[in-house]
Structures are given as structure tokens and as C-alpha cells.
Design a protein that fits this description.
Helix content is 48%, strand content 13%. The protein has three domains: 7-64, no CATH class; 70-203, Response regulator (Rossmann fold); 212-267, Orthogonal Bundle (Arc Repressor Mutant, subunit A). The protein has helices at residues 7-18, 35-42, 79-90, 104-114, 130-140, 155-164, 175-187, 195-203, 212-222, 227-234, 238-252, 257-267, and strands at 21-22, 25-26, 57-58, 63-64, 70-75, 95-101, 118-122, 146-150, 168-171. It has twelve helices and nine strands. The two termini are 44 Å apart. Helix 6 links the parallel strand 8 (146-150) and strand 9 (168-171). By secondary structure, the protein is of the alpha/beta class. Mean pLDDT is 76; it is low at 1-9 and 11-66. The strands form three sheets. It has a five-stranded parallel beta sheet, with helices on both faces.
């Protein structure tokens, strides 16, 4: 690992290593969960996350050598997926699975018992979905950390998960290659979002979001339901449904009803 060679840094690095801590210099000013520990145990004073008298900041990826393993809970309603995730994690010496859950409600109950460092959360599950589970757990445990594991690449689902409190978002086809490092990154206090998801979020950041009623209408359109029947089901006039459809087409940049449904499915509006 490359280190700065200036004298003051060498002195501090030596003190870190004497405490069994490896560090890496970076220009990042993001806060680190290790900083309070470093201040207390090394008796080093610095404002925010900068060491007094130092130009650079310390990477939030500081890790304690020989420390306890990162404790993980796996939440997914498919047993084979849970087994696959467990198999991947078993190959990482610094990570251990302490609990499994097959729905959001069970995840909440298991979290209360085990309080894992990082929770891997599927989105589509029975009883309680992943986003509602994240919200419920974070109400009781605000410092809890989550990585969403999903097959959905849409920006809407990713945004919902991030707003709920997830700091990692990983597509399931990336698990075998990227999961252990993603767990380490999120445990260290950083975000982990695939480039394609981040690009989609940026692309649509200025878009008008569909309202809940517009999503209701579009769900029925996706089932092939006509305006008149949708109006009856939602207890509104047919003119109101037509107005909703006009807004939906404009917000999604769609040419017609079928195009609107295609866009909505791709972006994740109709998931969950």
C-alpha cells in the first residue's frame, strides 16, 4: 500500500501501526466511523476529519488489523439466493453471516437480536418489502447500514432505496464479483452504487416524478385496462383519467400508452 513519505505523516502512520491500524491518505473529506476511535486511542487532535497541521485527510477506509469480522445479515425470500450469497461471503476471511431472513418483517426481528454491521436486503419480498424493512429498522437503529441486492436496474427503485437509508445498491448479477468489497465499503461508511445506476439517477434527476395516483393509473394501463374502467375502479371521471394520462406521457417523454408503460417498467415505477 502506497504511503506518503513526509516526516509528519510517517510519525502519525507509525502511531497508527502501533495500534494495529492501517491507513491510506486521500483528498476526501468524508467523515469516517473510525475517527472518534482514532482521536481517543491515539490522543491525536484534529478538527472534523483533518489532522492538525496536515494537508490531506484520512481515507474513510481505515481498518483495524486483526479486528473482529464484519457481521452481516442476509435478507432474501429465495433460499437458493441466500445460499449463494452465503457461499460468496464464506470466501471472505473478514466477513461473517450472523443471520438470515426471508422477508422484511423477519429481518426487523432478526436485526433486533443480532444487530449486524451490514444488512443485505432484497427489495421484492412477501409480508414486508425491502424498502419498508429498511425504514422500519432505521427507525429503531438509525446507524444501521444496508446494501440493497436487486435485479431491478431502474433509477426509481434505486432512488427509493437510497432515500429509505440504503448506502449500497448492487445488482444480483454482480454479487459473485463485487459483494465482499461492497460490504467492506459500506461498513467503512461510504456509498457503493454501480455506475449504470448512478448514471440513470443523474440522467433523470431533473425529471418530474409520477404521483401515486399516476402510478395507480399506469399500473392499470399496463394490465390493458381502458380509461372508462380505470375511472370506475378509482371512483373518478373518465376526463380525470385522460388528464392523468396526459401528464404521464409528458413526464415520461412517451409517445403513447404502450410507450409509457415500457418506460415505466424500465425505470422501476411499477415495481413494488
Amino acid at each position: 500500500m502506497a504511503m506518503r513519505s513526509d516526516g509528519p505523516w510517517d510519525n502519525v502512520r507509525a502511531r497508527f501501526l502501533s495500534e494495529g491500524i492501517e491507513t491510506e491518505s486521500t483528498s476526501s473529506t468524508a467523515a469516517s466511523p473510525w475517527l472518534p476511535y482514532l482521536r481517543a486511542s491515539l490522543n491525536v487532535s484534529w478538527p472534523g476529519n483533518r489532522l492538525s497541521g496536515f494537508q490531506g485527510c484520512f481515507n474513510i477506509g481505515v481498518r483495524v488489523v486483526g479486528s473482529e469480522k464484519i457481521r452481516v445479515m442476509v435478507t432474501d425470500d429465495h433460499p437458493l439466493m441466500r445460499e449463494g450469497i452465503n457461499a460468496v461471503i464464506q470466501g471472505a476471511e473478514d466477513i461473517i453471516v450472523v443471520a438470515d431472513a426471508d422477508n422484511g418483517q423477519q429481518a426487523l426481528e432478526m436485526f433486533r437480536v443480532h444487530q449486524p454491521d451490514v444488512t443485505l436486503m432484497d427489495l421484492q419480498m412477501p409480508i414486508m418489502n425491502g424498502i419498508d424493512a429498511i425504514k422500519a429498522i432505521r427507525r429503531e437503529f438509525p446507524a444501521s447500514r444496508f446494501i440493497v441486492l436487486t435485479t431491478y436496474q431502474g433509477d426509481v427503485q434505486a432512488l427509493r432505496a437510497l432515500k429509505a437509508g440504503a448506502t449500497g445498491y448492487l445488482l444480483k448479477n454482480m454479487i459473485w464479483k463485487d459483494l465482499p468489497e461492497s460490504i467492506r465499503v459500506v461498513h467503512a461508511g461510504r456509498r457503493r452504487i454501480p455506475a449504470e445506476i448512478a448514471e440513470a439517477l443523474v440522467e433523470h434527476v431533473a425529471d418530474d416524478a409520477l404521483t401515486e395516483r399516476e402510478v395507480e393509473v399506469l399500473r392499470r394501463v399496463a394490465l390493458g385496462t381502458g380509461n372508462k374502467i380505470i375511472a370506475v375502479e378509482l371512483s373518478v371521471s373518465e376526463a380525470t383519467i385522460k388528464a392523468h394520462m396526459k401528464n404521464i406521457l409528458a413526464k415520461l417523454g412517451a409517445n403513447d400508452r404502450t410507450h409509457a408503460v415500457t418506460i415505466a417498467v424500465k425505470r422501476g415505477f411499477l415495481d413494488g
